[in-house]
Specification:
- It is a single chain.
- The protein is α+β, with helices and mostly antiparallel strands.
- It has eight helices and seven strands; from the N terminus they run αβααββααβαβαβαβ.
- α2 crosses α3.
- It is elongated.
Length: about 180
Amino acid sequence: MIEGLITSKTRIKLLLKFFLNSETKSYLRSLESEFDESSNSIRVELNKLEVAGLLHSSFEGNKKLFFANTSHPLFNDINNILKKMVGIDQIIEKITSQIGDIQAAYLTGDFATGHDSQIIEMVLIGNKPDRELIDKLILKAEEFISRPIKYIILSQEELIRVFRNKPVLLIWQADKNNE
């Protein structure tokens, strides 16, 4: 979908990396091994995104650290486009809006670190939600986005314990005023 608009696969990878999870920070060399691409092609795209104001950078020692400019006027738009590309918006729409016992939804695995993946891994935070309903809604969402979704249901405390040193990305949270 987005490949028709942005022809550079490296730029798409960088946008996913930095704009799906705005807390992601990375160095050129780590991106080189992560993407399995030449440092020159990554450097060119990083520089273009930095000149456009979409990325910021800072130095830690002699390493240049890149991260998303969350105050850029297009940040939210790019984030939403990437969520639509991945199908996260449909997951939220089809699952969380129909299950009252869910307090939050998190992405884990590759998407939590800003990597595209064929499988979407999620943690749903809830107190004994209807698993049968969730399974039906997951099936519908999978058909709609053409990607499998793996999920587990945990309490907030279990999430902290199980994913202590692993990346998680909050994608939805129940409105506290409506509880």
